[in-house]
Amino acid sequence: MSHSQHDEQDELQKYLEEKAKQEQEKQKEQEAEQLSAYEACVLKESAKIHELIAEAKKEVKK
Length: 62
Known about the structure:
rod-shaped; about 95% helix
């Protein structure tokens, strides 16, 4: 194998490794977005529950 072919293989290897790293980071970001959407939903439901509890306490006091 000639020297230039070896250099090309090294360049290709580096490129592929960098691409793989970028893909992993993108996947992590997407997972984080999904998690934050989930958390937002949980917080919204939690607020509804607290509202219902507050209403129920008012009803009991009457």
